[in-house]
Design a protein that fits this description.
This protein is mainly α and 169 residues long.
Length: 169
């Protein structure tokens, strides 16, 4: 299923970039806190990536990149989650997500379920390889594929719904 939506590519010199980023970072702070109320909610639902995907896809890779970097750092500083030891892998995946989502939106100019699935799988597969290299533990590196499939599905279907129906303009 595919719907035509207005996608943007905001510049760093545009105030809208920082306003949009602020809203998406706020979402990436509030939503993970809610999911962390449920046992293993963070590692099952992967909420730290949700608004990074939406921001990058809808408003461009710059908004996505700012959101991808600020969200995990602020969450870790304020709430201790993600743990400092987990930040490099989460930052890697967040940045990959921002870049892939921004590139897909720019290249294909539509937000389909298949496109979002491809973006999520791309950042997860490459990010998992990077995490494996960083941590030297394959079992730990594939944790998102072992436990986080509901979160990946939430990113695809929830992201598609928000991009296509809630922030359509």
């Amino acid at each position: 299923m595919q719907t035509t939506v207005k996608l943007y590519s905001l510049e760093y010199s545009d105030v809208k970039t920082y306003l949009a980023t602020s809203l998406f970072v706020l979402g990436n702070i509030v939503v993970p806190q809610l999911f962390h109320l449920v046992p293993q909610g963070g590692i099952t639902w992967l909420p730290i990536y949700f608004f990074t995907l939406i921001g990058a896809y809808k408003y461009g890779w710059r908004v996505g990149l700012l959101t991808a970097i600020a969200s995990p750092l602020i969450n870790s500083l304020l709430f201790g989650m993600p743990l400092v030891t987990g930040l490099p892998a989460i930052l890697l995946k967040s940045v990959l997500l921002a870049v892939f989502a921004g590139m897909a939106a720019t290249r294909f100019k539509k937000a389909s379920l298949w496109m979002l699935l491809a973006v999520v799988l791309a950042y997860q597969v490459i990010g998992t390889l990077g995490e494996w290299i960083m941590k030297g533990d394959f079992y730990l590196a594939v944790q998102d594929f072992r436990i986080g499939v509901p979160g990946m599905l939430m990113q695809v279907f929830g992201g598609w719904g928000i991009i296509n129906y809630i922030i359509r303009k």
